[in-house]
Structures are given as structure tokens and as C-alpha cells.
Amino acid sequence: MPSGPGTRFLRALALVCALLPGAAPAQPWPAKPVHIVVAYPAGGGIDVMARQLAERLGRVWGQPVVVENKPGANTIVAADAVAKSAPDGYTVLMTTDATFSINPHLYASLPFDLKGLIAAAKAKPGSINYASYGSGSQPHLAGEMLKHAAGIDLVHVPYKGISLAVPAVIAGEVQLTFAGIATSSGPLKAGRIKALAIGGAQRSPLFPQVPTFAELGYPEVETHAWFGLFLPAGAPREAIARLYQDSSKLLQDPEFRQKQLIDRGYEVVGSSPEAFAAYIRKDSASRARAVKISGAKAE
Prior knowledge:
Elements: E1 10-12, E2 34-38, H1 45-61, E3 65-69, H2 76-83, E4 91-96, H3 97-102, H4 114-123, E5 129-132, H5 138-150, E6 155-158, H6 162-171, E7 176-177, H7 181-189, E8 227-232, H8 237-252, H9 254-261, H10 273-294
Helix pairs in contact: 5-10
């Protein structure tokens, strides 16, 4: 997998990559508080998920699990901090596809449907703005891929987090954004914004009336994102195994699975480390093309 700042130091685990060799711990893990570093600001979908995981894993482990938000540089601030932490299994990174699928290729409410948006953008190039959370972020790449596929001109307006981008649409500062269901479902159900299309291979059961980008003729537009847990290279095998096993078990808990994941618009996967490692490699190759088309550069 290509490497870049903040990624070359890390190897994925738990829901992500293969179990890694590491030094055997001196005592059963965890023997003290565990810190989960979230690569995004408080209040967003991944932050909510991290706090739900932390509360439940803390009960299982009998140790406090503390969540710390370290947003910045499209997840690199958090990734770099965890990568440089002691490889003892007590500092965990929770991040998205930005870190491993997108970043490596960067360094070195509307009154109409999507077709109406395309038509308006063609009629008045540059008159429609879309929000993201930074150059090279998933919403930025999705916007640029839509521009490329539809042959239109949209203006990119970066914000500091997706939790700010959706309110910007509501306030009329921008005309659209690309956000997850967990972040946008409240305003959608309240009628404050309108869903034009959804990413993924099939429609969401929460919003079955919203067509996919593929249905509308734009299969190239990638709007998916995934969450994963990571430890620094060299973390103890026991820490890796416990984090994977216990988080996977939690994902299969019927109440947690339904209320905290499915009802929030997430698809539950819980892949084995090996399967997720293979998925990241494939996803990274796909995002490489999107980065090239977007012309995004590291900020």
C-alpha cells in the first residue's frame, strides 16, 4: 500500500488489517486506561461511534476507555500522533478511509433533483457551491468526480469538518455537500435539506426513495466511507487480538448493531483483519484515480 505522512508509521488492525507480530505484554491487556484518538472533530458520525464503542468496551475490559479528538490535515494529525505513541496497545486510532485510501495519493437544500442540479450547473457554470471538510477529503473527491462525470463546474468550499458543512447547506452558504446518513438524517427528516442521490451499490433502507448515483448514470461517483481501528506497528499481539475480538463481538450485539449502527445509516461489516487489509488496498487504488481527476493537493 502506498505510504505518506502519518500512514507509513501505522499498520492497521482490529477491523482493518492482518494481525501483526509484536512483543508479548508483561501482564494481561488492558491493565490501564485505553485512549481512542478520533481523527475528526467532536459531534460527527465517527466521534459518536467512537464514544459508543468506548463506553461498551470499557465495561468489557474493566478499564476506562477515553476518547480524544485530534482533527486536522485530513486525519494526518491524529494518525501521526498515534503512530508516534508507545506501541503498547493503549493508544488506538479511529479514522476513516481518508487516512489509508486517500491521503497516500495526495502527498508526493436544493429545489430540484440531481438531474436538475446538473442542468443548472451547465446553464450557469460556477454558480453552484459544494462544501467539504478540506482538499482531498472524501466529499471533495466525490464533488470532483461528479464534475468530471457530468461535465459541469461546481465551486469547492472547504470547511473544518463535516459537522460544519451540513449546517452550511441549511444556512444557504453553499448549495450542496456529500455527507453520511448519520450526519444528515436529522435535517433530512426535518425537511431542512433534500437528498439528491446516495452512494453505494444499493439504496438505503432508511431513505429508499433516494436513488443511487449509479442509477442516475454516475457510477464513478464514490461517496462511501468506512471506519476502522488502528494501533502503532509493534503493538502487543494480545492487545491486537482483544481489540479485534471484543469490537467484533460488540458489532454483532443485536441492540448495539440496530440502534447504534443500522438505525444511523451504517452498514455493519466487521471484517476480519485480513479481509479489511485486502479491501483497503482495493479502495486505495480506486481513490488514486479520484485524486488524480480532482487535482487535489496536500494542504
